[in-house]
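does this look right to u?? manganese (II) ion version
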Amino acid sequence: MRPFERRYIPKFIQSFVENTSVYIIMKDISPFTLHQLAQIWMKYQEVSRKFSNLVFLDKINSDNFNNLLIVGDTHGDLNSTLRIVKPFFDGKVDSILFLGDYVDRGEQSYLNFFFLVCLSILWPERIILLRGNHEDLELNLVFGFYKELQNYFPINREFQAVLALVNAIYNLMPLVAITPKHSVCMHAGIPKSIPPLQLFEQIPKPHIGYLKISDKKLKKELFNAFIQVRWNDPIITSLKMKDEVSYHGHFYYTLEEVKQFLELNNQKRIIKSHEDIRGGYQEVFSDVLYHVFSSEPYFGQIKKAYTIHEEKIGDITLRDLDFNIELKIKG
Ligand SMILES: [Mn+2]
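got this back:
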């Protein structure tokens, strides 16, 4: 793969890579040119060819993911993101997996999104970005990213070009990642059908390719998995709730169903983000389902935000955004 030429990397990212002080780079933040965005898109296409929608991290690289930071929603908050990636530049973690929702709600979706996409291009075997439910133009129209892009690109022709490019990147982001410690990481959770992991591998890339599948049953199954892995929420109940529709029209899953999914796929736990959990972290189902949220501002409030640190040996740890240990999680 040809190296990503320096002139295509926006100045604020270059400054950050050279000196990871959040406060120093703020003066250098400038929008990307259309030409830079086109180069980023071309390079992202090249990088994303390396993996399907189901990423076994240790197959990408057998060493890098043994010291891994797992990050929940950052929702347009570049400040949270810059703090989160600092331990990577300081050599304290070797890799980072982001669980989606880079845009909307926060005020810097545009910079947050392309900053992360650039990092995943610069370090394709260390920085992986999954697709969340907000990596979707229809949601962006309502929750802020669309409007922000319009401000950056007031000329309609350019705005349409950037929208197409953003959408094309969304369509190549993988959906599920498996860590060396057998954590299944995804944005929201398990689809109602409780599928084998291989089903995610069958979802086309770019995702829009599902439209071309002629087998109607398979097409529906793959589409449902594509939507629900980014939308479904866990529910704490002893009842079977899998047919219960949640408030946004998707499904809830129970402890029983999580156990069934993990057993079927021979994995140990699920790590997910998506919901606005007060306090930024919750062990939803003891030992098997962990929720992490990584953006401090949310709906106009500042709240605690966390990341999860997995190392090959020892317990998994919950970290705050400055990489301080908050809690040991049995690993
Ligand atoms: Mn979400």
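The radius of gyration is 19 Å. idk if thats expected tbh
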